[in-house]
Write a structure and sequence with these properties.
Layout: H1 9-13, H2 15-22, H3 27-34, E1 39-40, H4 45-52, E2 59-63, H5 69-77, E3 82-87, H6 90-93, E4 100-102, E5 115-121, H7 130-140, E6 141-152, H8 158-172, H9 192-196, E7 202-214, H10 218-225, H11 238-256, E8 259-271
Parallel strand pairs: 2-3, 2-5, 3-4, 5-6
Antiparallel strand pairs: 1-7, 6-8, 7-8
Bound molecules: S-adenosylmethionine.
S-adenosylmethionine (SAM) binds at residues 18, 23, 29, 63-66, 69, 87-89, 92, 104-106, 121-123, 126-127.
């Protein structure tokens, strides 16, 4: 059993922390994304998004585009589309093929109905005013357009939450230490449909369940370390906790041959 993820509101939405540290470059985001290479089944997320956009013509904006995973794929698969990447972090945008611009999801620099589709992939939980950002998505997308958002379930990777509490507990001399930060808890897969349906007439949820199986602690350690931007908000020495977590995973692998993490993410496909 793990505790319900804690809502660390200010820490997760602090724009200077997001652009100056967490997403200053794509390094930590890539470390988190790369854990999915051990997931079964494997989902081709950019491919699933391209499939949902098959009827779309014209302009697609990727808001909070990060290191450009979706833009790169759409540029390749859909050369007919005009693509625009927006993000609060100038640093991470340097890795993304243009056109791109620094912009906040709460105040999009786009005219009403200007785009035919918008993506908000694993990013709405970073926005302070989530309903306001959802209204912005509705404002900039033309009638008949599509918005695709994505996020994780409250149950996603609960083994890592448990691992963190065991490791931090060992460091602090407690049975279980404080819980780790959860990014997606502010806009979980469970809550997202009702938030989106305030603006969009149709919201279809595509759940993407899977299991990550590792036989080496390194990818788990790298994933945990990718939260280093929030290191001083964990109420426990960050590096030591991660080192201890790596030892616990090693012991499990020695005993059981592997370490498993149950994942549940999803796409929310919205039409106006
Ligand atoms: C978890 S990453 C997701 C990146 C990409 N969408 C993906 O799914 O691979 C979140 C991204 O959203 C950006 N972001 C956070 N808050 C934002 C905001 N208010 N407006 C625009 N982008 C934001 C971050 O800088 C980061 O690049």
């Amino acid at each position: 059993m793990t505790d319900t993820p804690v809502r660390h509101n200010a820490d997760v939405t602090d724009r200077s922390l997001l652009s100056g540290s967490a997403y200053k470059s794509g390094r930590d985001l890539s470390a988190r994304q790369s854990l999915y290479q051990w997931q079964s089944p494997r989902y081709d997320l950019p491919g699933l998004v391209a499939e949902q956009l098959r009827e779309i013509r014209g302009t697609v904006v990727d808001i909070g585009c990060g290191n450009g995973k979706f833009i790169r794929r759409l540029r390749n698969d859909r050369p007919d589309l005009q693509l625009l990447g927006l993000d609060v972090s100038a640093g991470i945008l340097a890795e993304v093929p243009g056109p791109v611009a620094v912009a906040d999801a709460s105040q999009l620099p786009l005219h009403d109905g200007r785009v035919n589709a918008a993506l908000a992939m694993h990013m709405l939980y970073h926005v302070e005013d989530i309903p306001g950002a959802v209204s912005e998505l509705g404002r900039v997308v033309a009638d008949g357009g599509t918005v695709i958002a994505s996020t994780n379930s409250d149950r996603d990777k609960s083994e890592l939450d448990d691992l963190w509490q065991r490791a931090s507990g060992d460091i602090l001399g407690l049975d279980r230490g404080p819980s780790r930060i959860s990014l997606s808890a502010r806009f979980s897969l469970e809550e997202a449909p009702s938030v989106l349906s305030h603006v969009f007439g149709t919201v279809n949820v595509i759940e993407l369940p899977g299991t990550i199986t590792v036989t080496d602690p390194a990818p788990v350690v790298a994933h945990m370390a990718s939260y280093r931007a929030w290191a001083n908000q964990h109420a426990v020495p960050f590096e030591e906790t991660i080192q201890r977590a790596g030892e616990i995973v090693s012991q499990r692998i020695e005993k059981q041959g592997q370490f498993e993490i149950a994942c549940l993410g999803g796409l929310l496909v919205c039409r106006r």
